[in-house]
Amino acid sequence: MTFVRPVFRHPESPKNSLGYTKKFYEGALSTLCAGCGHDSVSGAIIQACFEMAIEPHKVAKLSGIGCSSKTPTYFLANSHGFNSVHGRMPSVATGAYLANRDLMYIGVSGDGDSASIGMGQFVHAIRRNLNITYIIMNNGCYGLTKGQDSATADFGSINKSGAANMYQAIDMAGLALELGATFIARSFSGDKDQLIPLIKAAMSHPGFALIDVVSPCVTFNNNVGSTKSYDYTREHIEATAAVDFVPIMEEITTEYAEGDTGAVQLHDGSTIYLNKLSPDFNPRDRHSAVNKLYHAKASGEILTGLIFIEPETRDLHSLLNTTTIPLNALKKETLSPGSSVLESINASHR
User: Fold this and answer.
1) Angle at which helices 192-204 and 37-51 pack, to 10 degrees?
2) SS3 category, 110
3) What is the CATH number of domain 22-244+277-320?
4) Measured distance CA(221)–CA(237) in Å, rounded
5) What is the spatial distance between Cα 153 and Cα 229, in angstroms, rounded to a whole number?
6) In terms of pLDDT, which residue wins out, 265 or 68?
7) Where are the alpha helices (DSSP H) in the chain?
8) Nearest to residue 157, comparing CAs of 229, 219, 235?
9) pLDDT exceeds cutoff 80 at 198
């Protein structure tokens, strides 16, 4: 058995506008269980970055501890990376982003990493509107410690040992909506047609962008009775809309067979197109999103797609009015402008 990814690729593999093939966006060979939903999420990130022609060296990927937090090893090998301690990824991401706003940040976490030990940090990353694509690979269990129920396991869900969960689940999308997150989506690891456009839209959003991905654990939580299994998820998905993401600089036309199509303009000039299957659902209305989540939960459905987006928003740098120059690029004369400047600052506070 080998853990080295084959280097051969077809000589005529498609290239993006930067001249890179998809191989340039891959990472090491995954050591997760065969069939793990997390690998599908990694593949979706690779595809999204390839299609968006993102320069990997301008991306920083961050994670905590858990099966999900291993995955940055498996994508974007040519990017920056930092694997933090359990639940502390948001604070590391905050420090990195304040130091260098020119990088694009992808935070990868799990339901244990964000919904339990890291809950406080998750909450404040949203509150500060940290400019990060925050992906939760949600399998409802602790895969590294033999499958105990996590805080996102649904009430009554049956784990592999046959025990029913006696606690109410924490809905990460609903929590983010209540806390004021400006981009909230949910998807399924096995639905790349939906997940890839959502990742592309999240990476273009100027603020905290959450994607809660139901990602089944094939070893410990894919049994009958689990509400995070492949079978249950496929049988209970309810999509908010058919979603596509089209950068505005490309002349691409999109057609949908049914429903009305609405466009949401993002900060970089790109557009996310929504085919509204439900006439009463508006992803730019928090009340509509709250109602949609509530009705889906009441009927035992898993709501996926773009749940809420606030196109006009201010990220952390805008709120703090910080320098536009990364800290490592500041010159000595800027960092030490002299005693006269310090005296004028002191005088302004007297």
Assistant:
1) 50
2) strand
3) 3.40.50.970
4) 18
5) 11
6) 68
7) 37-51, 67-70, 89-99, 111-115, 119-127, 172-179, 192-204, 230-236, 286-298, 316-320, 332-335, 339-348
8) 229
9) yes
